[in-house]
Predict the structure.
Amino acid sequence: MATSSRVSDLISMLNPLKRLYSSPTRVASFPMTVLKAPVAALTRAASMVLGGKRVGIIGLGSIGSSIAKRLKALGRVIQYHSRRPKDTVSFKYFHDVISLATESDALIVACALNDQTRHIVNKEVLGALGKDGVVVNIARGGNIDEAELISALREGKIAGAGLDVFEKEPVVPAEFFSMDNVVLTGHEAVFTTESGSDLCDLMIGNLEAFFDGRPLLTPVLPK
């Protein structure tokens, strides 16, 4: 998908593993809500070796795969959960999210939102991730049980969270604004010049394929 790489690029912004410290600073805005997040000079980021950290990805579709490619190049150990194992990758597969969280230092949510994945990150998953773990969500707000996430962050059951999406957008829970272990952005990965250009190219490519009688680049398949 054209915007997969743009969404994947956002991971570097939503990296609570950096443990950034400062007073809250505006970093993004919704049409109706201004978001704030802890942003600090990178020189004050607490030292934490990121190479070798285990990253669990929920959903290894186009976006999840792009994230995995970037993080693997940075020395992360990639593992994943999806509906079924992928024959095209060598990453370790986990058949359930709790097992994946137990064996991960960071959990990245990159799956679609449906009846099966709503609150796929719940109290049990956050507990399995543990007090040194972080969760990043660039998928859909409903993929995480937001109330349980707030409790886990407040009680120190996990180390931090990076969120680009929220369960009841554009409303953002007020609790996040006072937390120094949360990084927030405003569902903004697609709002770049490059993303707009990518989407235009994709639309033109699909139209050309359709009128030429060729398979579509991104067909919508029946369930």
Summary: Helices lie at 4-9, 62-73, 97-102, 123-129, 146-154, 193-211.
